[in-house]
Predict the 3D structure of the following.
Amino acid sequence: MSRQRTAAAEGMATCHDCHLLVAIPGGDDHGAKCPRCHSALHFRKPASLQRTWALLVAAVVLYIPANTYPIMRVTSLGRSQADTILSGVVHLLEGGMWPLALVVFVASIVVPLAKLFAIVHLLISVQRRSPKKPVERTKLYRLTEMFGRWSMVDIYVVAMLAALVQLGSLAQVEAELGAVFFGATVVLTMIAAESFDPRLIWDRRGPERPHRPPSARGAAEGRKPGRDAKTAHVRKAHG
Amino acid sequence: MAARAWTGAHDGPPHLVACHDCDLLIELPPLADGAAARCPRCQYVIGRGAHETIERTVALTVAALILFVAANAFPLLTMRASGNETEATILSGSRILWDQDNGGLAALVLLTTFVAPLAHALAMLYVLVPLGFGLRAPAAADVFRWMGHVRVWSMAEVFVLGVLVSLVKLADMAEIVPGIALWALGLLIPTLTAAMATLDPDEVWDRLDRSVEMDADPVEAPRAPEAVRPDGEAAP
């Protein structure tokens, strides 16, 4: 492990938006801007753990009313029936539409819960500086980012049913409060996943200190001429 | 030596990159077309050997945009029940939510099924079409940067699943006819996926770097810092 160097330990930051590797002389990334795409440069996403925790807690809090309140109300011939996410799945099962029930169950219940647990696991393991299974945890993070969006299926179903079934007193579908909370949960978990920095999984493993201020000289040009002179023409940051 | 120093240099000697997911410094060798380099530590794909992908991406994006227009111009689903006929389009979902005083949900549906996909496709064309001629559109770097953020909120593929679930759910109670828009959306998903798989953002950034500003103002100073431009303004 000791031969593996990270960009941060060498006083370099990867632009989050355009992936340009930029040397930040002095090791202070405050106010540094990417010379190529002008976005703010950071060695690590700023206050990543705090932000992710805050968004996650908000998502968990909203997840409770998202499941207890109905997400839609179906009015048909004077009879009105409100469905929560779970009761909607149960109704599909009772109606014998089990493939559909499975799709809705996975998208609306399994994916959001798995995502909440995955982010909690990542946050706690990073805070405890766990050295265990970093590759698997990095992959878990990528999966979380990739599949979180599929929870939106139920929101779209509500929107489509509401748009189609509008026969006034004869039959009508309305979105209910639960759908609002559920939509907010999905959005918050997506932003939470985005604000988590997977590089933290690797930072906390060894004695390597990511935020160690490197010498201004070393970071800028040809630190180890024998190895880097050919390759490390790294740009300097603005400002 | 004409070493290119930034990520995405596809030829020339190896260059230094940092893994996006674990920050490991890696000397990336030139990659053959179709090859991919993975981080030895966390297996993130740090580079793809893709050359001249911009023209293909533009073609696929234009196709996606045409399909998007079709998907919006025709009904997705039509329901016939007790002598009535209702049509649902992509936009009518958010409109009806708005009418039901559910502004937040209406905005979320509008953003993820209409605004974000459209903005994403238009931004791609805005950046990539001039770039194909070696030109840089005004604020192209900013547009391309924001495109990456918009992309996350473009959920056409999830929406298609939602429409299909609605279709099966209602098929029991009423006659549901899938509309042209559903087929257009069905074709849009693989087209968009192909466009995004073809696009190599590193190549775009690399070419943005070497491109010439459209209607370049002679008074304006050069955009990039002079310290590290090994190959200057060389046209591609």
Q: What stands out?
A: Residues 52-214 of chain B form one domain. Chain B touches chain A through 75 residues (CB under 8 Å).
